[in-house]
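Lecture notes, part 5. Sequence design as translation. It can be helpful to think of inverse folding as translation between two languages: the language of shapes and the language of residues. The source text, in structure tokens, appears below.
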């Protein structure tokens, strides 16, 4: 995905204010009606529509009139909000070349003023093909709406929490620096993914270290669930670093044994194929500790002593609620199963395209007014503590008492704006009619269209170093 950070330079305070207003609107709306954006942004001299036009031009917003007229943030818009927050915090000041493209993420170099280079991972759940959607069908079926940005935020928060916890427990992982929305900043890992390595000086040692990590994770109550040559980095001294853990599960998961065996199998298969290894002599003594193995030398899940409370403890320590956990767990389940059945053919794609479309559009009947207004003279970006994750747009943002936890700089007003209510009711009625009566759409006061086609996906990799 193209990340033209130069655009950031030209975005004004008003642009960010409106972008943030759409983000806030998305806490209650899959598509945010223009009137609501205007109301939340509350620009002093009006002009929200002009700003939205600019944001559409740069593909930071997407205009959607399929069921009712409104806007949503694109991944690029979400990227910019996260990047701006992190730059304001002084975490980094420049974005450089793209380091990697994961299944559901993009990784870029970022640099601080003093030239320290780090890695920035932008989570992009929902980006993969219809095959992925197929595997997530069960998850989507039970929801009236969902929000990829919110799920990406949860994935980032989860990954950041694990990275910090694993680092504290002495695992070879990148240093977790900061996290905001769907973005994780971590230290740059020297070396390359193991999949790119054709030869090793000491394959047995590397193999034992890697299997030792799987076992040690299990002792800590965790299973990686995607432990393979793509997620293991190795440097010139053959030192290993594990990456990519938003999908880890607890050893008390009902399929824990299967996930454990699958992780082990991936490593065995890779070393057998790539380095022609046989394993009997390697696994008797893993990572300095004797581990029970089966006849083929594979470590046995049941014989490992496990700390089952680790995962819950670490997640709740980093502000991950049980509800967040359940939310992302359902999604992760889909993802994990997908890995297991990645040889499936896409025979039912049409069906899944419609699942995606349906799920992407919130039921219009549930459209309701959210009386949110940004406090006018405050900065758009709330400044949070460094090293804490902040909430992203949520489909269910409110506390049980209906209150809304916002940053210090945002104020939720509950003034009964009859005029706004009336206008929104009108939008709602037209939306319901349009949804019931077929595909008829309607133009609001805003007639801007995203002419750039679907989102701003581009396979081109931007190679630049831009700073602010
Ligand atoms: P995904 O979850 O999408 O698979 P990963 O975390 O595995 O994403 O990252 C994808 C690729 O990006 C990796 O294979 C690696 O090449 C690169 N990468 C990720 N994190 C770092 C890092 N901290 N330092 C250097 N390269 C990284
Ligand atoms: Mg990966």
């Amino acid at each position: 995905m193209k990340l033209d950070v130069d655009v950031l330079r030209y975005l004004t305070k008003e642009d960010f204010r409106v972008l943030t207003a759409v983000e806030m609107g998305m806490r209650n709306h899959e598509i945010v009606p223009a009137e609501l954006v205007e109301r939340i942004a509350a620009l002093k001299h009006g002009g929200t529509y002009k700003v939205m036009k600019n944001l559409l031009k740069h593909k930071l917003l997407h205009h959607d009139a399929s069921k009712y007229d409104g806007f949503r943030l694109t991944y690029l818009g979400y990227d910019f909000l996260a990047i701006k927050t992190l730059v304001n915090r002084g975490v980094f000041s420049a974005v450089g070349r793209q380091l990697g493209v994961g299944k559901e993420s993009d990784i870029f170099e970022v640099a601080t003023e003093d030239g320290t280079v780090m890695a920035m991972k932008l989570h992009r759940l929902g980006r993969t093909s219809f095959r992925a959607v197929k595997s997530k069908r069960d998850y989507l079926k039970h929801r009236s709406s969902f929000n990829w940005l919110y799920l990406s935020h949860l994935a980032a928060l989860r990954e950041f929490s694990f990275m910090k916890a694993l680092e504290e427990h002495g695992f070879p992982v990148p240093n977790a620096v900061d996290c905001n929305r769907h973005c994780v900043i971590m230290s740059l890992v020297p070396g390359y993914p193991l999949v790119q390595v054709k030869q090793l000086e000491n394959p047995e040692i590397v193999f034992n270290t890697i299997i030792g990590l799987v076992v040690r994770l299990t002792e800590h109550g965790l299973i990686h669930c995607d432990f393979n040559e793509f997620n293991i980095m190795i440097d010139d001294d053959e030192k290993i670093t594990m990456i990519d853990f938003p999908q880890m599960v607890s050893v008390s998961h009902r399929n824990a044994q299967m996930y454990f065996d699958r992780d082990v199998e991936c490593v065995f298969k890779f070393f057998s194929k790539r380095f022609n290894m046989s394993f009997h002599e390697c696994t008797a003594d893993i990572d300095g500790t004797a581990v029970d193995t089966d006849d083929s030398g594979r470590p046995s899940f049941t014989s490992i002593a496990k700390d089952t409370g680790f995962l819950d403890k670490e997640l709740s320590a980093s502000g991950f609620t049980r509800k967040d956990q359940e939310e992302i767990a359902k999604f992760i389940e889909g993802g994990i199963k997908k890995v297991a059945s990645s040889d499936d053919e896409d025979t039912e794609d049409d069906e899944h395209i419609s699942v995606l479309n349906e799920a992407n559009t919130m039921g219009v009947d549930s459209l309701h007014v959210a009386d949110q207004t940004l406090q006018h003279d405050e900065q758009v970006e709330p400044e949070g503590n460094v090293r804490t994750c902040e909430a992203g747009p949520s489909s269910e943002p409110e506390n049980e008492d209906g209150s809304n936890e916002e940053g210090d700089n945002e104020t939720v007003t509950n003034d009964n704006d009859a005029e706004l209510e009336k206008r929104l009711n009108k939008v709602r009625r037209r939306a319901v009619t349009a949804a019931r009566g077929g595909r008829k759409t309607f133009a609001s006061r805003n007639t801007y269209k995203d002419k750039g086609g679907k989102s701003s996906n581009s396979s081109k990799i931007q190679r630049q170093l831009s700073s602010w």
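The translated text above is only one of many valid answers, since several sequences can fold into similar shapes. The longest strand covers residues 94-102.
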